[in-house]
Amino acid sequence: MLQGKQNKFNFFLISILGLIISQLASAQENFRKEFNLGVNGGVSISSMSFSPNSKVRQNNLSQATGGLSFRYVSENNFGLQSEINYSQRGWKEFDAEKDPSVHYTRALDYIELPVLTHIFFDVGKHFRVVFNLGPQLGFLLNERITEDSNIDTSITYYTQKVQRRFDWGLCFGGGIELRTDKGNFILDGRYYYGLSDVFTNSKVDTTYYFAASSNQVICIKLTYLFSISLSMYL
């Protein structure tokens, strides 16, 4: 399973590099630098990558995400996009074998900071196809547990708080941008692949339960950006 994920991720990186190389060879002549500020909001669809995954049966947990967006386009087809977001993540599980009516939900509230390479291709006068790829950092602010009264409390992590509040991983995705006189509107989807664990994975720890426990999040967002003139600074 892990090998399959790695192969898919490698294919994605190779595809992005191919797009970058092709665009370097066909730069537009009338390029103008851009500096954009704005807001974003949408839905996050999250789960956890547990190992061994046979211990947990999950459903995706749908919640909210949103924040501030900053974008600087310094080269033709390339730029930097960063955000400061409030992101709700977590997981929802059930026991299909013993009692599928019993549910356990752990909601995790993060402040996250993605710093992304921004790649775009103009499609006509008002549209762009956009891609974003880069690292993302996060810090856990709060966690909330919702459980049925007859949940099996002998499972240790049900009552164990998150032990690692700092989170990091890779984020990538793409979408469509509509450019107007009133600002730019971007509808995009992203996948966050967590590379850190929320629970300890040291076998010398008495609370050890999982070998891996990382955030996995799909986000669908709508972003509004407005331009700030750079003529006085550049």
Defining traits:
mainly beta; elongated; 234 residues; single chain; Porin
Distance between the termini: 49 Å
Summarize model confidence as the mean pLDDT. Answer: 84
Element-level helix/strand string: HEEEEEEEEE
Level-1 CATH class name: Mainly Beta
In short:
It is built from one helix and nine strands, in the order αβββββββββ. The chain has 234 residues and is mainly β.
Structural features, described:
- The chain is mainly beta and 234 residues long.
- It has a single domain, classed as Porin (Beta Barrel), CATH 2.40.160.
- The protein has one helix at residues 2-24; strands at 34-51, 57-59, 61-75, 78-95, 99-123, 127-147, 166-180, 183-194, 212-227.
- An eight-stranded antiparallel β-barrel has the order 1-3-4-5-6-7-8-9.
- A hairpin with a 2-residue loop joins strand 3 (61-75) and strand 4.
- The chain is elongated and about 60 Å long.
- The protein starts with a helix and ends in a 7-residue tail after the last strand.
